[in-house]
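At this stage, I wrote out one protein's amino acid sequence and its C-alpha cells, and that material follows here:
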Amino acid sequence: MTVSTSPQTASIPPIDGIFRALSDPTRCRVVERLNRSPASVSELAQPFDMALPSFIEHLKVLEGCGLVHSEKAGRVRTYRLAPEPLKLAENWLAEQRALWERRLDQFDAYVMTLKEKDI
C-alpha cells in the first residue's frame, strides 16, 4: 500500500509514523484508554509513574502522527482518538496478511506437486 502525498491525501499520516507511535507501551495504553472516551491530560497521565512533561511528549507523538486530536477549553486540554490512522494501519496489515497467505498457498501447492512426483 502506498500512501500518496497528493493534496487530497496530504492529511493522511505516513504509515511508519503510526507504527512508530504505537511501538511504545505508554502510547499504546493511552490509545487503549482513549478508545473508551475522550480524556484530559491529567486523566490520561494519572496511571503512569512519570513526570508530566515526559508524559506530554508521548501525547505530542500521538498527535503528531494523527492518532489523537486535542482541544483546549480554558486550562484543560482534552484528547480524543482519531480513528482514520488506525484504519489505515489496519488496512495495511490486512494487505500484508493477504500477500503472505497467497505466498504460503503457492508454496503449499508447490510442495504438494513435489510430493506427487515422488509417489
Notes: The helical segments are 15-22, 25-36, 41-45, 52-64, 83-118. The chain has five helices and three strands. The first strand starts at residue 39 and ends at 40. The mean pLDDT is 86.
